[in-house]
Amino acid sequence: MCPKCSSPKIATQMYPVRDGLYANGISTCLKCGHEWDSNQDITCMSLKQLQDEQRPWVAHNFPGRQPFYPLLGAMEELGELAHAHLKGLQGIRHTPEEIKLMKQDAVADIIIYLSDYCSAEGLCLMTAVETAWREVRERDWVKFPTDGRTE
User: Fold this and answer.
1) Which of 6, 39, 75, 106 has the largest count of CB atoms under 10 Å?
2) 37: Cβ contacts below 8 Å, ≥ 6 apart
3) Where are the domains of the chain?
4) 87 by DSSP, 3-state: which?
5) For the domain bounded by 45-151, which CATH number is listed?
6) Cβ distance 32 to 10 under 8 Å?
7) What is the pLDDT of residues 91-107, one digit of tens each?
C-alpha cells in the first residue's frame, strides 16, 4: 500500500536473494507515482501467522459477519485473476507490467480471503495446505496417467 495516498496498486521491483527467495526493492505507486524503498517491509510470513494476525483484524472490522462472506470474496478475486489473465492473453487494456501486478494482487487477495474463511470454519489453512501437498506430491502423472498412483 502506498504510504502517501494509501492506494493498493503498486509496482515493486523484486530481486533474487537465495534459494528462490526474492526481496523487495523500490516500490512505485501506480496512482500517485510516489516511490519508496520497500526493503524495510520484508518478512517471511507463514500461512499460520497470516491467519493468527488476521483473526483479530476481522473481528474488529467485521463483527457479526456471516462465516461464508470470505468464501464469496475469494470467488470474486478468482474472477479478477481470470480477468487479468484474459486481458493479458488478449493484449488489451493494460501493459504486461500492470497485468502482472493485477495477477499478484488477485492471488494475494485469494489467499487472504481463504485464510479468513478457514478461521471462520475452524480450519488451519497451513495444515490444510501441507496435508494436501503431501498427498499431491506423491502423484506421478507421467508414470501413472490414469490416476497418478497406479495403472
Assistant:
1) 106
2) 25, 26, 27
3) 1-42, 45-151
4) helix
5) 1.10.287.1080
6) no
7) 999 999 999 999 999 99
